[in-house]
Amino acid sequence: MVALQVGRQLELQFSQGGLAPEDRRPKANPSPYCDFCLGDASENKKSGAPEVLVSCADCGRSGHPSCLQFTANMIISYRKYRWQCIECKCCSICGNSDNDDQLLFCDDCDRGYHMYCLSPPLTSPPEGSWSCRLCLNEFHSK
Description:
- With about 140 residues, the chain is an alpha+beta fold.
- It has one domain: 2-Layer Sandwich (Herpes Virus-1), CATH 3.30.40.10.
- About 20% of the residues lie in helices and about 5% in strands.
- It is built from 3 helices and 4 strands.
- The strands form 2 sheets. It has a two-stranded antiparallel ribbon. It has a two-stranded antiparallel sheet with strand order 3-4.
- The chain is globular, with a radius of gyration of 16 Å.
């Protein structure tokens, strides 16, 4: 019960623009090469064009947004938080990577969320695309 209350407090702080716990840790040294095409920022080996690299804050692995199949909203969003690769992804609310079968990934920002950490919690993954509360406010409110 205490963990759930802490999770709710973190979600409230996070939704109000505060830093999530993982935002305070130092970032890993970024790899200068894309893990997918083996190019660098000066050349994406698939497209032949220069493209910025996105680097995991935890392990430093890098990828071009196009190699990672980032959407336009993900390209806007990843700069605003400590982006994590699929191997390092943890819940943006509780900061834990346990129960990875319960992690949802936002289709707009690529953050991870445990279904049970959401408010209200989800008991099963939604069908189709899913956006976190932050992205609903940023990209889908009118």
